[in-house]
């Protein structure tokens, strides 16, 4: 009769191999990181005007801000008015279903808001909203 090449102890038999479970957890982690949509903030604090008909919108993927000094902010950095259209085009290509929310300070001029809206329309963005505080 042959003897086994190695001797298996009872302690080794009753153990559970965790390697397959760790592989699945790692794959799920990668899946969630890749598919997660990251919220992009404008990077400055805006004193928004109040509106009684304001409704919350959680699906905006592009946010742009106009501060009280009519400076335009996108992704926590100040941008030149001439480059707004190109930046919005690039962001719209990355996410074609994305909507734009313009956060204009109540002290900013209407002219700057209209220029940003025109640049967004020229970039191909059709869903544009203006942020307001609920009364």
Brief summary of the model shown:
This protein has 135 residues and is α/β, with parallel strands linked by helices. Helix content is 33%, strand content 19%.
Q: What do these coordinates show?
A:
It is built from 4 helices and 7 strands. With 135 residues, it is α/β, with parallel strands linked by helices. It has a 5-stranded mixed beta sheet, covered by helices on one side. A two-stranded parallel sheet has the order 1-7. A hairpin with a 5-residue loop joins strand 2 (60-66) and strand 3 (72-74). The longest helix has 17 residues, at 19-35. It is elongated and about 95 Å long.
Write the layout of secondary structure elements.
Layout: H1 10-13, H2 19-35, E1 50-51, E2 60-66, E3 72-74, E4 77-79, H3 84-94, E5 99-104, H4 110-122, E6 128-130, E7 133-134
Parallel strand pairs: 1-7, 2-5, 5-6
Antiparallel strand pairs: 2-3, 3-4
Helix pairs in contact: 3-4
The arrangement of helices and strands along the chain is HHEEEEHEHEE
Would you give the CATH topology of the domain at 50-134?
Nucleotidyltransferase, domain 5
> For this structure, what is the CATH class of the domain at 50-134?
Alpha Beta
Strand content: 15-25%
Main sheet overview: 5 strands, mixed
Mean pLDDT: 80
The parts where pLDDT drops under 50 for at least 5 residues are none
What's the end-to-end separation, in Å?
89 Å
Helix content: 25-40%
- Overall CATH architecture of the domain at 50-134: 2-Layer Sandwich
Oligomer state equals single chain
SSE class: alpha/beta
Radius of gyration: 26 Å
What spatial form do the alpha-carbon principal axes imply? elongated
Strand order of the largest sheet: 4-3-2-5-6
Number of helices: 4
Total beta strand runs: 7
